[in-house]
Request: fold
Amino acid sequence: MPSTAEIKGRINSVEDTRKITNAMYLIASTKLRKAKNDLEKTRPYFDALRNEIKRIFRTVSDVDSPYFYPPDKEPVIEGPYGCLVITADKGLAGAYNQNVIKEALQLAKDHGEMKYFVVGEYGRHFFTQHHIPIEHSFLYTAQNPTMERAREISTLLLEKFDSGELKKMYIVYTDMENSLEAVAKSTRLLPFHRAFFSTPAKEETVQTPFEFLPSVEEVLNTMMPSYLSGFIYSALIDSFCSEQNARMNAMNAANQNAEELLAELSTQFNRVRQAAITQEITEISAGAKAQKRKRMRRKEV
Reply:
């Protein structure tokens, strides 16, 4: 049985660990609120941009663009695909990173040749450790997603798509559906399907014709890089919020485990201390009785 000093040392260690996990919980909650506020500030612009793309399709249904599938079919596209994988820079976030990696590997199984573009130190370490080639690694974006970095990512991906080096682009990120559930999902970035910008039934078609200069195709192709940057930025923020939420849940579970462990250690400490006190009392009592018997024998002599 461990001594009181050993149990006391374990209690101090658990308390120190609980302080760290509690601090990480508070930091994650602060980052989560800030990221949500940043996303809410930029969302109206990209919602308006998407509405303008919808308006173009309502005005000219047969517009041709390399960023969209034809309106009547989805042709089979042969060639290498690209995949933007968004992970975290560190662990301690439950199964957050593992779910993203699993989704990215499953996407490669379904679509064959895949070139990976990785965000986050965890993803870089995983692909390097498992000898999976990385086409490009974006540094320092997972912990501090910004619009500028989203534009850098989208610019590189568009260059490879426009040059024909990549025929399709996918993105694997974590969608935070609510505070209790976050799902790792894969979404096709390029080319877009026109149904993604379909007009709801309640909206009326455009009656007054628009004039596009220099052409409707040029206008649409000019808008798409900005929309793609917004899409990637939204995915970065969404993944970052999911990471912080997962870390909050993990740290909360660690705090609860620490409380349970402290309760068990306190009970064990009290039992050992009580046993030690009882033993000391027994030894003192036995010693007193021995001394008493010794004095009585002296008197008899």
About this structure: The CA atoms of residues 49 and 227 lie 7 Å apart.
